[in-house]
Amino acid sequence: EEKLNLDDSQWEDIHVVTGALKMFFRELPEPLFPYCFFEQFVEAIKIQDNATRIKSIRSLVKKLPRPNYDTMKILFEHLQKIAAKESVNLMSTQSLGIVFGPTLLRPEKETGNMAVHMLYQNQIVELMLSEYSKIFG
C-alpha cells in the first residue's frame, strides 16, 4: 500500500535492501516453501545419495503452487548470481543458506528442534543454489 521511491538514498545500502527482502518473505502469511512441504523437504535433504537428493528436491519444487514455484525460481536465480560474486561480496551459497533458509522455509509450529531444523533449512537453500540448473532447469 505504501509508495516506495527506490531512488531514495536509503535504498543504496545493500543491507537495507536485503533486510526489506527478508522481511517481505518473513511476513508472508505462509512461507515461500508452504508449511505442508516442510517435513518433505527436510526428509529429502537427509538423503545420502546426492543425485537422489537433488531429484527428490526437484520433484518437491515442481509440486509447489505455481506462484510459489515462479517466485522461488526468480529468487534463487538472483541469489545464485549473488553467490557467483562471492569473491567480492563474501556471500557463498552456504552464507545465503544461513541468511535465507529460516526465512523461506520453516515449520508451522516451532518445536524444540529449532537448531536441527535450522541446519536443514540452511542445507536446503544451499543445495538449491548450488544445483539450481538441475532443480529448476
From TrEMBL:
The protein's name: RHG15 protein
> Which biological processes are named by the entry's GO terms?
signal transduction
Q: What is its main location?
A: cytoplasm
Q: Which gene encodes it?
A: Arhgap15_0
**PROSITE patterns the record matches:** RHOGAP
Q: Which InterPro entries match?
A: Rho-GAP, Rho_GTPase_activation_prot, RhoGAP_dom
Q: Where is the Rho-GAP domain?
A: 1-136
Q: One Pfam family, short name please? A: RhoGAP
Q: Name the domain of life this protein comes from.
A: Eukaryota
Q: Which GO terms describe its cellular component?
A: cytoplasm; membrane
